[in-house]
Amino acid sequence: MMIIMRTEATQSQIASVVARIEKQGLRAHISHGAERTAIGAIGDGRLINRDTYILLPGVDRVVSISRPYKLASREFCPEDSGFPVDGVHVRPGQVLLIAGPCAVESRSQMLEVAQAVHEAGAHALRGGAYKPRTSPYSFQGLGKEGLEILAEARELTGLPVITEVMAPEKVSLVAEYADVLQIGARNMQNYALLRAVGESHQPVLLKRGMSATIKDLLMAAEYILSHDNERVMLCERGIRTFETATRNTTDINAIPVLKSLTHLPVILDPSHSTGHWEFVSAVARAGIAAGADGLMVEVHPHPEEALSDGGQSLRPKRFAELVEEVKSIAEAMGRKVPPQPVPKLED
Q1: 66: exposed, middle or buried (C-beta count within 10 Å: 0-12, 13-18, 19+)?
Q2: Exposed end of the chain (fewer CB within 10 Å): N or C?
Q3: Taking the domains of the chain in order of start, what are their residue ranges?
Q4: Is 129 helix (H, G, I), strand (E, B) or coil?
């Protein structure tokens, strides 16, 4: 249930509604809109007496939310949501470009690619310090050393860092170094991990599971949102189908469908969607035309030497070309690619 406050509602009236919700054993979730405040009552709907709320001072109306994903739904928040990430704003009407290698392999490799994607126009840097791999014999990442290298790359370029966290007990460590916590496809329904990143209040990029429905993805996001963490981005990265020509099947449909169902930003990962660098740019362009709020692209200066996913990584020059293509498509769609963050200079 959602309680819509009047535009002139006072803070004390809002606090009174919150107190009533909590007294009934429910959780209150406040969303401040451009004109008015909405308060979600989260929990067992059978405990809610609508009449007790509509009579409270400052309340305009009480609305039932039909979707099982309450906080993620457009019924709860009709307007597209956004939030700042260390110098970058994820906001409606703009296209966010995230780029970097699949894995942090060495200091020299990471700093080289960070400089390259920054020069090309990226807004954020991706790189895996911990790598979940299908084979236990594949490269698993550098761990804490990789996080330290990512932090150095951020200082060098000013680009905020996005990296994957794989276990609840690692959230606090990864959050010390990363600006955005990524939940990988294999962990989309790791509910203990979702709770942990929700409680961290760090921005989160949540990837769709390999066989997950759109509803599954939104319900996973609900776990994070229900712990008072509103800074969540959804990532479509392709799903597993009978087709074997590409690594996964890019669900372009998911972008407009998600945009119709949720207020959360939607990012497309064309690298994992295809698994082949030759198709990455075409799918990326299609994603922006379909309404994606951003892209997350794998870029490696020497993909033939990559320890992970070299075959789907763009070289820096090709990524720079893609950035210009994206700018043209975004402009044609009435959107824009915003300026990059400025590197932090030492005193």
Answers
A1: exposed
A2: C
A3: 2-63, 83-332
A4: coil
Compute the distance between CA of residue 69 and CA of residue 15 in angstroms, rounded to an integer.
24
Amino acid occupying residue 191:
Y
Q: Which of 161, 157, 143 is nearest to 112 (CA)?
A: 157
- Mapped to the 3 state alphabet, what secondary structure does 175-213 carry? HHHCCEEEECHHHCCCHHHHHHHHHHCCCEEEECCCCCC
| 83-332 and 2-63 share a CATH fold | no
Q: Which two tokens stand for residue 235?
A: 């990532």
pLDDT tens, position by position, 11-53? 999 999 999 988 888 888 888 777 788 888 887 766 677 778 8
Cβ–Cβ < 8 Å for 123, 338: yes
Specify the fold of 83-332: TIM Barrel (3.20.20)
Cβ count near 106 (within 10 Å) = 13
Angle at 262 between CA 169 and CA 269, to 5 degrees: 60
Q: What CATH homologous superfamily does 2-63 map to?
A: Phospho-2-dehydro-3-deoxyheptonate aldolase; domain 1 (3.30.70.1140)
**pTM for the complete prediction?**
0.90
